[in-house]
Each structure stands twice: as structure tokens, then as C-alpha cells.
Amino acid sequence: MARAAAQTFVDDDEGYLAWQAAHPDLYVINAERSLNPNNLVLHRATCRTISGTPTRGSQWTGPYVKICGSQSDLDEYPTARPCRICLADDR
């Protein structure tokens, strides 16, 4: 069964958190709203820095955009650097 293409969440914490709960084995790119290619970070969906309670502010998808999917879905963002916490061992 083929997976759906990447999903993007903007100003939709409820949708983002529901996606995250349903796809703990997939990945999330955390991006500035401008989608600045120099500031994209790839995380596992379960990374503590992008799940649970926001550490800054009260929203996950207010100041940032979440682009979610499989690694192959996110290949169109080649400048995304791996998270130093959840993907440190994958380098």
C-alpha cells in the first residue's frame, strides 16, 4: 500500500498532533513560515523537540510550518539538516 505524499500543517496544531499520533514511524520537517531552505530541520515524528507541549509559545504550527511524511516524501527538501537529538545516530 502506497503512502500519501507529504502533508503540510500551517496554523493547525490539532491536525498536526493527530497526524503525529497516527504516524509515529514517519518524519517531520520543522520550517520557518517562509520555508527558508537554509533553516529546515528533519526530525523523527516522535522527537521531543516537536511533540508534547511547545517549549516556546503555545503553538506548534503558529510560528513554524510542519511538513510531514516518509523520508522519500521529504526528499524534495534536500537542504533539511538532521535533528541533533533524534537523528544524531543516523549521520
Write up this protein.
This protein has 91 residues and is of the alpha+beta class. It has one domain. It has 1 helix and 5 strands. The radius of gyration is 12 Å and the shape is globular. The relative contact order is 0.28.
What is the H/E string? EHEEEE
Query: How many domains would you count in the coordinates?
Result: 1
Q: Shape, please?
A: globular
CA distance, first residue to last residue: 29 Å
The chain-level structural class is alpha+beta
Unreliable spans: none
Give the percentage of residues in beta strands: 15-25%
Portion in helices: 10-25%
How is this fold's topology laid out?
Layout: E1 7-9, H1 13-22, E2 27-32, E3 40-44, E4 64-69, E5 81-82
Parallel strand pairs: 3-5
Antiparallel strand pairs: 1-4, 2-3, 2-4
List its traits.
91 residues, 1 helix, alpha+beta, 5-stranded mixed sheet, globular
In short:
With 91 residues, the chain is α+β, with helices and mostly antiparallel strands.
